[in-house]
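Let's practice the habit of predicting before peeking. Look at the sequence and jot down your guess about where helices and strands might fall. Then scroll down.
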Amino acid sequence: MESKSTAFKSADAVMERAVRRGLTADRTKINPRAVRRNLRSKSKYRYSLALEVWHSYERKYRPSDPRDMQVMKHCAETLALGMIGKLDEEDKLPTPDSLRGSMRRFYNAWERHYNLEIPLDVKRSMAPVSKAVVTR
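Done guessing? Here is the structure:
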């Protein structure tokens, strides 16, 4: 058995060993989807709710793509005005934190479902938008 210090001394030896142990040159059989951890049942339920709201939004405002900044700002405003929260007694708006949590669950659910990425600048822009919409 090789010691840890010599296990990777030669890159060519690593490659040869991998081929001897069954590595093939054919990469077409490898699943190209991102590998994500398994969700707890409560998370699965909340993710499915987030997608249901998105599908309802999509039916009302076609075409909609969450990778578009304007669409996500409008969607955040829709959630803020449509959710029931505990920010004030009169309007029962959600807190900025609960709105951000809902948006994060939506991003993750959408990315898992469609195997596409929502740009990081879109995701990060929603926190200030959430706060501005709820506290106006």
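How did you do? The first helix runs from residue 11 to 20.
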